[in-house]
Amino acid sequence: MLEGIKVTKYFGGLKALNEVDFYVDSKEIVGIIGPNGAGKTTLFNIICGFYRPDSGKIIFEGKDITNLKPYEIFQLGVARTFQIVKPFLRMSVLENVLVGLLYNKRKRVSYVEARREALRWLEFVGLHEKKDVIADQLNYVERRKLELARALASEPKLILLDEVAAGLNPAEVTDMMRKIEIIWKDYGIAIVWIEHVMKAIMSVCHRIIVLHQGSKIAEGPPNLIARDEKVIEAYLGEAYA
Question: For the chain, how many helices (H) and strands (E)?
Fold first, then answer.
């Protein structure tokens, strides 16, 4: 479904991504981990068209999307959440979700249909009772849930999750893990998930990609990644590896 070929990105003299190759199969949950500054969110920004790579390509369903604009990539079926949550603060919770539905050119719906669908996703993430609350009044965790509902409402084929478990307590992390599995299993949406909560990402993902200083240093099933010497060294230092 998604493929990156030797994706490279510079910021001035800093090489944020160094010829990174990756792929995501249909209906697969792929995790991306790595220390801070590894290039994880930069990779998401390139996939979504916010940045253009200095070299390399992004292919989605056989189509080269490297030079497309973010809204064009969104209309192809790629949605995302952000590490720093970005709701429309002056709009209600319901209105935030309606945006993803009413501006989805792949599926034209009436306002009544869009509202019904938006309420369904708010129920899914646990925000139905706050549908009329202005987004600015939500707490941090609620804003994360709103981001997820808004992305899901666009009916994506692929969703990019950027640290959706950040700031959650253990019970909330478990609930988020369950929701991500439902998104994959029941709705057939492919998922790429950046996360620092290792318990969550190692339990849910089918395959893990590890970035360190802009390069891919490991890839494989979670049980092997957890024992990989390069990964342990990147996180804890050479002495632990």
Answer: 9, 10
